[in-house]
TrEMBL record:
GO terms for molecular function: manganese ion transmembrane transporter activity. Belongs to the MntP (TC 9.B.29) family. The lineage of its organism: Bacteria, Pseudomonadati, Deferribacterota, Deferribacteres, Deferribacterales. It is a multi-pass membrane protein. This is Putative manganese efflux pump MntP.
Length: 188
């Protein structure tokens, strides 16, 4: 898997955090440096750690799935992508589950875990296709942190203009990468 593929996986994974950052920004109205830092740091950190956890879990079962690992990667990335697409068409903006300052305490931890669960499955997928995890995890974390900062800073403007289209784009990217992995293995 080359850098560009990992980059697009990272972009696809960061869309949930980006959308939640926009929603948090809209909720907060006045965003401070602390809000921006907390969301960017925590979303980036969780997005970097979860694929490592998934990769470790995936490596422990890789010998059992090596004959159909490309199907596992395709399936997981497609499910994650379809989930993002489905959520992009739902009416829920995620604002109902957050009360008060979403950049503090348990709300921040829950949002960080919720936006990074998909990265856990991607880590399993990367283990299935025998990709080293450290560069992808770092790239996923950095890109997610950057998208979260942008989403928080420009949340009101981005949310009004693009809304759920951002999440749909992330889902489509993940599905396309899943198809690419499947085709590479089937045609080689």
């Amino acid at each position: 898997m080359n850098f560009l593929e990992v980059f697009w996986i990272a972009v696809g994974l960061s869309m949930d955090a980006f959308a939640v950052s926009i929603a948090c920004s809209v909720l907060l109205c006045h965003v401070s440096f602390r809000h921006i830092f907390r969301l960017g740091f925590h979303f980036g950190l969780f997005q970097a750690v979860m694929p490592v956890i998934g990769w470790i879990a995936g490596r422990s079962v890789s010998e059992y799935i090596s004959a159909w690992d490309h199907w596992v990667a395709f399936g997981l990335l497609s499910v994650i992508g379809l989930k993002a697409l489905k959520e992009s068409f739902s009416d829920d903006d995620g604002e109902n589950s957050v009360k008060g300052d979403p950049t503090k305490g348990l709300s921040l931890i829950l949002l960080s875990v919720a936006t990074s669960i998909d990265a856990l499955a991607v880590g399993v997928s990367l283990a299935a296709v025998n990709v080293s995890i450290f560069q992808p995890a770092l790239l996923i974390g950095i890109i997610t942190a950057c998208f979260s900062v942008v989403g928080t800073v420009y949340g009101c403007r981005i949310g009004a203009r693009f809304g759920k289209k951002v999440e749909a784009a992330g889902g489509i990217i993940l599905i396309i990468i899943g198809f690419k992995i499947l085709l590479e293995h089937l045609l080689s």
